[in-house]
Amino acid sequence: MKCFEKLVRNYVIACLPEGLDTFQFAYKTKRSTEDAVAIALHAVLAHLEQRGGYARLLFLDFSSAFNTILPQRLMSKLEDLGLHLSLCGWILDFLSDRPQRVRLGPYTSSMLKTNTGTPQGCVLSPLLYILYTYDCVAAHPSNRVVKFADDTTVIGLISEREGETDYRDEVERLTEWCRANNLLINTRKTKELVVDFRRQKSNVQPLLIDGVCVERVTTFRFLGIELQEDLSWSVNTRGLVKKAQQRLYFLRILRKNHLPQKLLLAFYHCAIESVLTYGLCVWYGSCTTQDRMGLCRVVKAAKSIVGCPLSTLEQIYATRCHRKALDIVKDPSHPGHCLFELLPSGRRYRTMKTRTSHLKNSFFSRAISALNGKPGL
């Protein structure tokens, strides 16, 4: 059955219009959480270049998002996207009257048929979900809605002159959209982070969703990366160093048991380097010297245990930054593609104008420098 589902999935993808839901980064070729965080951060940093502006980031949490899809509503959306009626009918039949049982030890419940949600572990489920939510987009140009599967973030770019009217209206519209599409916002787990670098900060009024006040936090784990309200990365790097140091213990145990160097190296790449480099393109360029020293100490310790040279984080960052930039340049549907503007010569890209070090050291600014071959990446 899974093989047939893969065939259906590939056919559905081939029928979809190009550039559909560009701010949905999940289940797409050469897109990752790193892309989603980079785009969200760039929107915030570019806005903060203007004096008197600040940003509010709302991290929505849905309760059992995949289990609340309404098949009939999904069908109407698939038809709007131009999928053939026979295919829509097959998907509707696939999602309707699914028998389910619950087994606990020797006990098995009676059969119950369900007509909402998508089957767990189904090949088609992720694709059907992102098609179900493709029309969840920002209504105002001063806002962004960044999605990675069911992780949805509303970014309000607020200026002194316009105020928060558009942002609050965006949240209200999104709440109404969720009601219409049977998606339940878990207000207890929904958090808000305010990025405000103004010298004279005004009192930011709390945000209410369905009468419940959304908790404002100073740090939030955004798609696996610790994001702080001052856009520093000390909490993120400390967490990575702590996790990597714990795994160094197992590397030492493996060496004591005389495992070959090749296996030690494989363990390092899989269990330690992968931790240290998660989302590297997003945060490494803005790290402080102290943060980088902590990361480098872990690599040096691993090098002495393994007994052979290891790539430095600086080298890995430069390589990944350049590769990611090339991928974005080749993908016109990527939201960051427009940031890579060729000069009339056709050989170099226009350097991003920056007023603050935050934007100057961000991924897109560094990526443009990497493609232009500038030193100091």
From TrEMBL:
Gene source species: Podarcis muralis
Sequence ranges assigned to domain Reverse transcriptase in this UniProt record: 1-227
InterPro entries in the record: AlkB_hom8_N, DNA/RNA_pol_sf, RT_dom
UniProt-recorded Gene Ontology molecular function terms: 2-oxoglutarate-dependent dioxygenase activity; methyltransferase activity
UniProt xrefs under PANTHER family: REVERSE TRANSCRIPTASE DOMAIN-CONTAINING PROTEIN (PTHR33332)
Organism superkingdom: Eukaryota
Protein name, entry field: Reverse transcriptase domain-containing protein
